[in-house]
Amino acid sequence: MFLKARAAIKYLVLDGRYGYIETDSLISIKENVKNIVIPSEERHISMYPLDFEEFCYALNEEIIIDYIKTCFRERKSLEVQLHKKAMLLFKQYMLMGGMPSYSEKINFFNFSE
To answer: Is the model's pTM score more than 0.85?
Structure first.
């Protein structure tokens, strides 16, 4: 889609001051590539979102995960306040798509920020 920008990355990488991460569907690259320099330094990796447990670990909320696991194993209900905390974390996870760095910066009770 942005083939000229993609071609410019090759020269920016050669400069050596910065690293670059691109995301794209390669479907658009297979068409209209005339006069476009495709970076030869590309590495293709598959990336996946965090699951809820990983999300909580990234936010230093290991205790709530351990508590949920214990309650599940013992077939007990979560205490009301801890259930509310777990649900808040889950809502943050769903809202942020598993990106903990953003959820740390946003006050979820004040969406005006």
So the answer is: no
